Amino acid sequence: MRSDRAATLQDIADRLGVSRSTASFAITGRGRVSEEMRRRVQEVAAELGYRPNTVARNLRGARTGMIALRLPPDSTAMSYYMEATFGIVEEADRAGMIVFMLPTEQRPEGVDQLPADAVIALDPALDDPVVHLLLSGRVPVITGEPVPEGMPSPRGEVTSDHEPAVRELMDHLHQRGMAHPAIVLPDLQSHWAFTVRDVFAAWCAEQGIRPRVVTLPHPAAPEVIHGAVADLLREQDHPVDAILSVSDGTVLSVVTSAQSLGRRVGEDLLVAAFVDSEVLALAQPSITAIDLHPREFGRRCVRAALAAIDAAAAGDDRVVRELVPVAVQRRDSTRGPVAR
To answer: Which UniProt keywords apply (predicted)?
Structure first.
């Protein structure tokens, strides 16, 4: 039973038999604390009803206690960014921080005056003037994925391990009979989009396969995706036997279009996505995809932001870097031809 006295960090430390600083590091995401210790501290904090004294801490450190979040334009309907945002908010709450979201159509004016201790910018794009200004400003910026070449460097970056996952997916498709793949790309100028395209092209070159690359506007209407799929499946020489979609939303339209054109997805046409979501696991057929663990990715962004805030206060200009592993989820859409 809880007493009327508010729980303190010392109460948590005493319960676990650790130092107060270890409990503090585990709560705030700072310092070198194992994931197991972080989990145990958070469990005890929840049990005791501990809440960080954000106001006192911020007054001592002349901070706002807030993190600004910048999502790419036209991203709010994409499940990946929604899940990553949940992870950001959850981890920030554990550290006693508040997250506020910048409008996706934010004008550049005034971004250098944000009342925030740090900014998290997911998938910064080369053609986004707001991100350019944020990276050149006074507030530490942590990017979810590295900045493309030609942009100012951030104070920290969290990266998904894309290349080995893309190669694993391509090898899987090849083992299932793929000989003539095509990739459907959104017209995005982000590190993630560039990496997926480049790894796809490199894999095809290594296999002696001509890569088919279709670039569509982002976001693309279903009829535009249908037209692209129809064009790919209409080819007579070396007909396409696998279509890879960068986004989870686009891949659903790819499957629907292919089925309407008489193809049996998972049998005479393999289909996969470079981003996973719950919907893809429930689709008919279920769709193979790369799970980027977006909630964990968001949590890592907050931890990197907290580390960058502390580093900036200490005059340390080292870049904080985190690498998040990803996993290929193999499902029915790439099972290959079925014996009849």
So the answer is: DNA-binding, Transcription, Transcription regulation
| Domain that includes residue 31, residue range | 9-51
Residue 124 lies in a domain: yes
Output the domain CATH number for residue 320. 3.40.50.2300
Same domain membership, residue 279 and residue 202? yes
Q: How many domains does the chain have?
A: 3
Say whether both 177 and 28 belong to one domain.
no
Q: Are residues 45 and 136 in the same domain?
A: no
294-to-79, 228, 277, 321 alpha-carbon distances in Å = 9, 28, 10, 17
Q: Is residue 261 domain-shared with residue 207, that is, in the same domain?
A: yes
Query: What pLDDT tens digit does each residue of the chain (340 aa) get?
Result: 445 567 777 888 888 888 777 887 777 665 667 888 888 888 888 888 877 655 445 444 557 889 999 998 877 668 899 999 999 999 999 888 999 998 877 666 667 678 899 999 999 998 888 898 899 888 899 999 999 888 999 999 999 999 999 999 999 999 999 999 999 998 888 999 999 999 999 999 999 999 899 999 988 899 999 999 999 999 877 889 999 998 888 999 999 999 999 999 999 999 999 999 999 999 999 999 999 999 999 999 999 999 988 887 777 778 889 999 999 999 999 998 754 3
CB 244 within 8 A of CB 334: no
CA distance 285 to 287: 6
